[in-house]
Amino acid sequence: MENTAYIVPELVTSYGLRVIASLAILVVGYIAARLVRNVVGRLMRRGRVDETLISFTSSLVYVTILAFIIIAALGQLGIQTASFIAVVGAAGLAVGLALQGSLANFAAGVLMVIFKPFKAGDYIEGAGTAGTVEEIGIFTTGLKTPDNKKIIIPNAKIMADNITNYSAKDERRVDIVASVSYNDDIDKVKQVLSDIVSGDERVLAEPAPTIAVLSLGDSSVDFAVRPWVRTGDYWGVFFDMQETIKKSFDAEGITIPFPQQDVHLHKSD
Questions:
Q1: Domain span at residue 147?
Q2: CATH number, domain at 77?
Q3: pTM value > 0.70
């Protein structure tokens, strides 16, 4: 009984301090985890990251920190955590192998957030398709095609291929090739093309447009017509200028060689 009277207070004192220390780790760690989660969320919102990705990343950071805090608290109580960590690691490896495709898409989504190759509203070409970006999710990106179809592309597939962002720059060059007969006066042709380009208010003065002989074909002289426009005016100028060139050539008696008699005009991006 006397030994018990001495042992019990000693055990209470020893383990009581460990319990208090463990609870302190849990409380402080919980507060720190919430603080870090909020900071990560604020930083990502400041970078205009998609809200879904913000929520997922913040939660992932929060859970990861809590896991380390719980392990530290258990260790403070004298519980061996090596085997527990091994089990958690093995489970994590198994889950990672099972979800490696999804994890690859998530990693690609994170890279897209960091490097920002495009944003919602941009018209892009990538992964073998093209369209306007509607949404950038954690695992996939949604595009809307010009004929109003929605395409869902895994992020890993987009990042593994070349990406062409047609909306990244404020200005774009419209490339048109106009072909005329060898019998036509090239100076007259250049003047007609110059009048067409300068008469379109959407064409920018700088950079200066290019109108020049591009090549001497088998049955035609090919002219390069390359005005610069605002990116939003690209397709309007492209289509309108082709029609104007055809009408102007007809009015001036300039021949568009057969078999391209109706419209021998090409676009090259």
A1: 117-165
A2: 1.10.287.1260
A3: no
